[in-house]
Specification:
One of its GO terms (cellular component) is membrane. Keywords: Hydrolase, Membrane, Protease, Serine protease, Transmembrane, Transmembrane helix. Residues 1-27 are annotated as: Disordered. Its EC number is 3.4.21.105. This is RHOMBOID-like protein. There is one protein chain. By secondary structure, the protein is mainly α. The chain has a single domain (38-259, 274-321), classed as Up-down Bundle (Rhomboid-like fold), CATH 1.20.1540. Helix content is 53%, strand content 2%. It has helices at residues 39-58, 60-69, 79-82, 100-106, 111-115, 122-125, 133-154, 156-177, 187-203, 211-228, 236-253, 259-262, 280-305, and strands spanning 5-7, 12-14. A two-stranded antiparallel sheet has the order 1-2. Helix 1 (39-58) packs across helix 4 and helix 9 (187-203) packs antiparallel against helix 10 (211-228).
């Protein structure tokens, strides 16, 4: 039983006012779904597992004796405790990994095999292989730092499509310019995620508060990573191809409702807002990016399987992947 209430000033019994009729609460601001990331962790696990498989297939100790008899490189690295999983000699692979022959056997990108032996599947399989422990750790750390946040915001389907298609896009551009080298690694797919982050910033411009800071920071990160690609033995064409592919796909898959739509429930009733969830410029960017992405892949694939050497049509493009100087040469 509730205790009696008294009006202290008037000395009378106090009757509490009747409760106000229950009011319908204002609808809350529409909140975007936050996904639990699993695609990125699975990709990391698969890459690590495939690297272990590559080292098992490589079996450096079994080939060391024959190689030394032919005057090959020195002994396997860490043979004493890694045994079959030991690394190739540093003079052959300074990244602590398998031999080039093993990588080719498992699906590395080789222009001659893609074009003349019709092994187009290598455009996809090469992004799951890595040349060594250093290569693997650098790429997987970058994937975790970039991919987890994107997957939380946009989900595994959209990020998965961008990651894989960007990887293939990087492989296509790499094959058009580099014919004498094999290529492996997830760098093209990672640059695709960076490109998607940039286009996501543009297409969702209205929802960002510190636009200039976000844009400058992202451009600096992209520029530094592309600059690293001009060093020798780094496939910058895969980086550029992946970045351009991801940049276009970001306009297609990462479009968000504009700021006015997301704030429509928390604004005063007298403030008008547009009833359209997306702004016209977002649809224009999506349409243009879709056309360019389809045309880019169609032209790139057509040139690749016809055996076209893109260097014949762009005499200076080889500088995008390696700039020779007094400290190193880029080879042929």
């Amino acid at each position: 039983m509730a205790a009696a209430h008294y009006d202290v000033e008037k000395g009378g019994r106090y009757s509490p006012p009747a409760p106000a009729p229950e009011q319908q609460p204002y609808p809350q601001r529409e909140r975007e779904r936050e996904w639990v990331p699993w695609f990125v962790p699975v990709v990391v696990a698969v890459n690590i597992a495939l690297f272990a498989v590559a080292m098992y297939v490589n079996n450096c100790p079994a080939h060391a004796a024959a190689s030394s008899r032919r005057g090959g490189a020195g002994a396997c690295v860490a043979r004493g405790f890694l045994h079959r999983f030991s690394f190739q000699p540093l003079s052959e692979n300074p990244l602590l990994g398998p031999s080039s022959a093993t990588l080719q056997k498992l699906g590395a990108l080789v222009w001659d095999k893609v074009v003349h032996e019709h092994q187009g599947w290598r455009l996809l399989t090469c992004i799951w292989l890595h040349a060594g422990v250093v290569h693997l750790l650098a790429n997987m750390l970058s994937l975790v730092l970039i991919g987890l946040r994107l997957e939380q915001q946009f989900g595994y389907v959209r990020i998965g499509v961008i990651y894989i298609v960007s990887g293939v896009g990087g492989s296509v551009l790499s094959s058009l310019f580099l014919r004498n080298n094999i290529s492996v690694g997830a760098s093209g797919a990672l640059f695709g995620l960076l490109g998607a982050m940039l286009s996501e910033l543009f297409t969702n411009w209205t929802i960002y508060s510190n636009k200039a800071a976000a844009l400058v920071t992202l451009l600096v990160v992209i520029a530094i990573n592309l600059a690293i690609g001009i060093l020798p033995h780094v496939d910058n064409f895969a980086h550029i191809g992946g970045f351009l592919t991801g940049f276009l796909l970001g306009f297609i898959f990462l479009m968000r409702p504009h700021y006015g739509w997301m704030q429509r429930y928390v604004r005063p009733s007298e403030v008008k807002y547009t009833s359209k969830k997306y702004l016209p410029y977002q649809w224009v960017l999506l349409a243009v990016a879709s056309v360019l992405a389809v045309l880019g892949f169609a032209v790139g694939m057509g040139m690749l399987f016809k055996g076209v050497n893109a260097n014949d049509h762009c005499q200076w493009c080889h500088y995008l992947s390696c700039v020779p100087n007094s400290r190193w040469s880029c080879g042929k």
